[in-house]
Request: fold
Amino acid sequence: MKTLTVALLSVLVVAACDKPAAEIKAAPSSSAGTTGVVSSPDPAGKKEPMPNVPMPEKSDAARAAASSNTFGLALYGNLAKKQGNLAMSPLSITTALAMTWVGARGDTEKEMRTVLHFSGDGDAAALGKLSMALTSPGRPLTLTIANRLFGEKSFTFQRPFLDTTKATFGAPLEPADFKGAADASRLHINAWVEEKTEHRIKDLLPPRSLTEDTRMVLVNAIYFLADWQTPFKKEATYPEAFKVAGGAEKKVPTMHLGKACAMLQADSAKILSLPYKDADTAMLIALPDAADGISALEAKLTGAKMDDWQKALATAQLSQVDIALPSFKIEPGPPVTLAEPLKAMGMPLSFDVEKADFTGIGIPPNPRNRLYIAEIFHKAFVKVDEKGTEAAAATAVVMAEGGGMPPKAVPFKADHPFLFFVVNKSSGAVLFMGRVADPS
Reply:
């Protein structure tokens, strides 16, 4: 069976300044929860049933999608400097950072708010509601979004932060022994990620990414599996030439399908909307007119541009399209680190061991210490074939102390590098996106 699979993971690591153990010993937890608490983990192995959550108000969903798309496409512009195939999830990275933003204060909060394109305090809540609604059961696809906080068991975390992240993002706190067993904790978190992404994302946290100074790891994992509304026929897949960078050609398995689709010509590219069985989800494929036009198209990508494309496609008259699309699989290599791109985008304070302000997450007992983001790791997997799409991704934030069809079919031949976007149509949220530079 052929399917489209996507797996994504984002991890944010929070650390504290490196001080002698006696100086960073956490204060006793308060049962009242006014200053902080160390929570207990969810029961091991217990799987809670997915709640049936309605979509948030249209304005809230659109606001959450717009902030995630605008931030995600700006970040993609930084990552796109790297050549070759590329995949990421704006929604995963935005969610991991939004959980962290809940505990940011002062100028650190202001920088994060600006970079994340949040317009108000309700944006994080709207994002959480949208995520839960997208994963509601009963839809003809599989979309799971899992969030979790792994916190140093001896550290006292602020109760309002824990309550908000659990209520808004469904992210419980699981105690971890970073001080005494940092690498064992790393392996445990990696195993959790692998399980949540159906074994598509492995080894998200590399060796030595966690240390005795790690205080919290905030993780978001997404898994997506969907069938095309009209599957490509396996017998209609055969090798065709694909122009890779530099003008060379490779023979790659290419799928063929004739289907009535929404398509538009814009920004020197053809943009095709290829629907899944779930009519509210589609893959947009942006194919530059020029074989070497991928960089020019990427330079035009913004949240506003994505919004324009989706609005135009929603009202476009259906065209009969002869589609030729390579099957492809983007396997995750080493995790992408996001600290430097995010500093360049305008939030350096979050990573500053001397200036970061995450006192909303926790206050180190030694006043000379402070929590800061040590690194953010991201991985994504995407597979597209005749039956549909499979994708997964994850992000980890590591913190330390310190109409009628036309008579003639329109050709859409993806025989050179192109962009793809898996979108939720009702909100406009981009779940996954990337570049196919070489389908082989």
In short: The radius of gyration is 22 Å.
